[in-house]
Probable thymidylate kinase
Amino acid sequence: MFIVIEGIDGAGKSTQAKLLAEWFEKKGHEVVLTKEPTDTAFGKLIRKLVLTGGKEGIIDGARISHEAEALLFAADRAEHVAKLIKPSLEAGKIVISDRYFYSSLAYQWARGLDLEWLIDLNRFAIRPDLVILLDLPVKESMKRINGRSIKTEFDKIAELQKRVRENYLKLAERFPEIKIVNALASVEDIHNDIVALVEHELSLR
Ligand SMILES: Nc1ncnc2c1ncn2[C@@H]1O[C@H](COP(=O)(O)OP(=O)(O)O)[C@@H](O)[C@H]1O
Ligand SMILES: Cc1cn([C@H]2C[C@H](O)[C@@H](COP(=O)(O)OP(=O)(O)O)O2)c(=O)[nH]c1=O
């Protein structure tokens, strides 16, 4: 089973991915908990070129072009799918990924790239069984990650996050595997909502 957790920065993805992995482990499953960008050479390149390119890089996404940025995320993902996700699923393991190609659609679309081009570019990425979209207002996510962002650029980041949130909600109408979870609740309540969705998915097998 392949489960993806998506949402804007600070939505609670890594918190919930970890709890879900523990839930599966308690039930005796072998779990691979992973994320994008990955920790491989491609992921490191993305962090260097796209995510930590100084103030400018963080706000506008890149000193490199948005197209090159999308291609880097896709290259990282191609390696992720080929070397970890596919073999793990074939071995019968549960794979939980903190972000996947829906992040590329939501974020790179918010940067102004064409959605259909992004979907085509990511066509190699096997479709997950379930995508949990942790949805919450940007104001709340900003409070949660306050320490992580550059305060003076706060508003610009918030504006981008708002577009990303709207994009995720639009994507949920197009991709039936995306299930929206209200991420404004407590960690425990959100976990229970996610477990209910997972149990429903398991009952269909
Ligand atoms: N439901 C929640 N309510 C309040 N704070 C939360 C909740 N879930 C996570 N947090 C906190 O918010 C911050 C961001 O959570 P995190 O799981 O790292 O988000 P993400 O992986 O989506 O960026 C962390 O400090 C975390 O402890
Ligand atoms: C996977 C992915 C992430 N991103 C963005 C979303 C986040 O703002 C950022 C980094 O992701 P994040 O989950 O914050 O990773 P980390 O904290 O480990 O560096 O990259 C994209 O723009 N496109 C993508 O395809």
Remarks:
- Residues 9, 36-37, 47, 51, 73, 99, 103-104, 107-108 surround thymidine-5'-diphosphate (ligand 2) (CB under 6 Å).
